[in-house]
Design brief:
Layout (H helix, E strand, L loop, with lengths): L2 H8 L9 E12 L4 E9 L5 H14 L8 E6 L7 H10 L4 H17 L7 E13 L10 H4 E15 L5 E4 L4 E4 L6 E2 L6 E5 L1 E3 L2 E3 L2 E6 L7 H8 L1 E2 L4 H16 L5 H16 L8 E2 L1 H8 L10 H9 L5 E2 H4 L8 E4 L4 E4 L7 E5 L5 E5 L6 E2 L2 E2 L5
Antiparallel strand pairs: 1-2, 1-4, 3-12, 3-13, 4-5, 5-8, 5-9, 6-7, 9-12, 10-11, 14-15, 16-17, 18-19, 20-21
Length: 384
């Protein structure tokens, strides 16, 4: 499921949507102290008042938001003996015809979360079941009926939300027209910032992929692997940050620790070109052979070690997402730094920067400029 498809679906999480319909909503309150469910309730979404509906819609909108491979991941179910318990469970829940069946399946999933509890507070887990209408590929015949072009896609989503600790504060009661202290019984469920979440199945070109699930994580640098491995029972690929680090390590194995700025610029230019030739709905990826072509013209130490470095770092069949390893070409996305300086610049300008030695042996950074440099509001004086 690519970013375009996710954004399209995300826009439908609104009260007046005609392409998205939420049917049932199921909440469970789980206590951290004794890992038990102290409350659960199932209701039809349309029976909630509009304010409650909007709060839930915003909560689940976040589950399919965020950067891909940073906060949002498309995961494949692991298969041992060709069976994945969670995949079967979610498929049966998706096909359940009664609330009792849906509750039974969601309780089983929640129990898996309890068995792998990794939160520092009480949580409320919310599941929704609904339908999303999406276009099936391209509509070639302008007279084709709309029902032949739009596909109904049933889905299940879940969000894990933290229960905020009680804080003593003053509240104004409009009904009694009085200011009073808040009660310890007033519990705040933070639906604005879900911790974990998922959507099953994943959608591709208007069709459901039952072998994949979309996983959301609120902390890119603190992935909840217990949720991924033991609750969803999925395999986790590298994050965007990990991919960039692995790609850098592979290039470093070929060129060594030091590299000229124009070489970096050349690598980024080739990656940008590969990204541009991809179809709009196609994920831009590169394989081992592509990396070989990228570095073949580099004055490297030993290009023969590239293949072994690639295999040791991520496996010879791994494909890098170009978006994860390529700095944004329309922004100052490249950082140049040491202990004394930090400069951000556009990757297209890398060939205009050099590290040189002066006559007295001092290392200097030389940057080609199109206009004057400004420091604290002052233009820097040009010296010969």
């Amino acid at each position: 499921m690519n970013k375009k498809e996710l954004n399209k679906m995300k826009k439908e999480f609104k009260l007046d949507s005609v392409l998205l319909s939420i049917k049932e909503i199921y909440n469970l309150y789980i206590k951290k102290d004794n890992l038990s469910v102290i409350h659960s309730d199932m209701t039809y979404f349309q029976m909630l008042d509009s304010e409650a509906q909007e709060i839930y819609l915003n909560n689940f909108k976040k589950i399919i938001g965020g950067s891909i491979d940073t906060k949002l991941f498309e995961l494949s179910f692991t298969t041992e003996n060709e069976v994945n318990e969670t995949q079967i469970l979610l498929t049966e829940a998706l096909n359940s015809e009664t609330n009792e069946d849906l509750i039974k399946h969601m309780d089983t999933l929640a129990q898996g979360l309890i068995d792998n509890y990794s939160y520092d507070a009480d949580i409320v887990v919310t599941f929704i079941k609904g339908d999303y209408w999406s276009s099936k590929g391209r509509k070639d015949d302008e007279y084709e009926a709309i029902e032949d072009y739009v596909n109904s896609l049933p889905f299940i989503m879940g969000s894990v939300n933290k229960v905020e600790p009680f804080k003593k504060t003053l509240m104004f009661n409009y009904e009694e027209k009085e200011i009073r202290t808040s009660s310890v019984l007033d519990t705040f469920i933070n639906l604005n910032s879900p911790i974990d979440g998922f959507m099953f199945p994943s959608f591709e070109n208007g069709f459901a992929n039952m072998n994949k699930v979309i996983y959301y994580n609120s902390k890119p640098k603190d992935i909840n692997y217990k949720f991924i491995d033991n609750v969803l029972k999925c395999s986790m690929k590298l994050t965007a940050e990990e991919e960039k680090s692995c790609f850098t390590d592979i290039i470093r194995s070929v060129v060594g620790e030091s590299i000229k700025s124009e070489v970096i610029e050349d690598i980024y230019s080739k990656l940008e070109l590969m990204k541009e030739v991809c179809e709009e709905d196609e994920k831009p990826v590169i394989s081992l052979n592509d990396v070989k072509n990228i570095v073949k013209d580099i004055d490297s130490k030993d290009i023969e070690i590239l293949e072994s470095a690639f295999e040791e770092t991520c496996g010879k069949d791994y494909e890098f997402n170009i978006t994860n390893i390529l700095p944004a070409s329309n922004a100052k996305s490249v950082k140049i730094w040491n202990d004394n300086i930090s400069i951000n610049m556009n990757p297209k300008n890398l060939n205009g920067i050099k590290q040189v030695k002066s006559e007295n042996g001092t290392r200097c950074l030389v940057i080609e400029l199109d206009d004057d440099v400004v420091i604290e509001g002052f233009k820097l004086k040009t010296e010969d």
